[in-house]
Amino acid sequence: MTAEGARPPAVLRDATPDDLAAIMTLEHRLFPGDAWSPAMMAAELAAPHTRYLVAEAAGDVVGYAGLSVLPGSPQADIQTIGVDAPYRRLGVGTALLTALLDEAERRGATEVLLEVRADNPSAQALYARHGFTAIAVRPRYYQPDDVDAIVMRREGPA
Ligand SMILES: CC(C)(COP(=O)(O)OP(=O)(O)OC[C@H]1O[C@@H](n2cnc3c(N)ncnc32)[C@H](O)[C@@H]1OP(=O)(O)O)[C@@H](O)C(=O)NCCC(=O)NCCS
Q1: Could you give the CA distance from residue 55 to residue 83 in angstroms, rounded to a whole number?
Q2: Ligand 1 pocket test: which of 12, 87, 122 has the largest number of ligand atoms within 8 Å of its C-beta?
Q3: What domains, with CATH codes, occur in the chain?
Q4: CB of 82 within 8 A of CB of 123?
Q5: Which residues line ligand 1 (CB under 6 A)?
Q6: How confident is the model at residue 22 (pLDDT cuts 50, 70, 90)?
């Protein structure tokens, strides 16, 4: 999968533990108030019930995304998705999300859930385009920013 445009094309591959430092650099840049700790991210990358992908361009990690499906569960969760600013609106987020939706289907999930900040219309637009609809609000979920979480759900296969 590639992104079109003036930037070098981004290609998706599975994340490995060696990607932790590059992912954490992006994590702090993209989610300054809500960044996961390196230990949490390392555990996510290593867990058997997750699948994490990175988007790489010219040798640099420019995006990443992760899915979690607990064994036997019909529910999959999009854990995170992020694309570095210079690589946005090139289809990288779409490629990452589509790959995770395919993986959810492979793992037998019949619905996919995620949480998104109420003040993040870009991500909400991406998810809405892929069949997610808002099903709940978790008031003041994101602290210390005091921002609501919108829970979005997508039914059925990718
Ligand atoms: C949300 C995010 C992952 C989208 O990544 P991306 O690579 O730009 O996404 P795409 O290029 O595949 O965009 C797909 C569609 O999503 C929507 N979209 C993406 N960014 C948008 C924006 N800034 N404004 C409006 N719609 C937007 C559009 O419908 C877009 O299609 P289009 O470019 O043909 O109009 C990216 O903006 C990002 O990393 N943001 C910071 C981190 C973040 O908020 N992550 C989500 C946490 S829940």
Answers
A1: 8
A2: 122
A3: 11-155 (3.40.630.30)
A4: no
A5: 30, 81-83, 88-94, 116, 120, 122-123, 125-126, 129
A6: very high
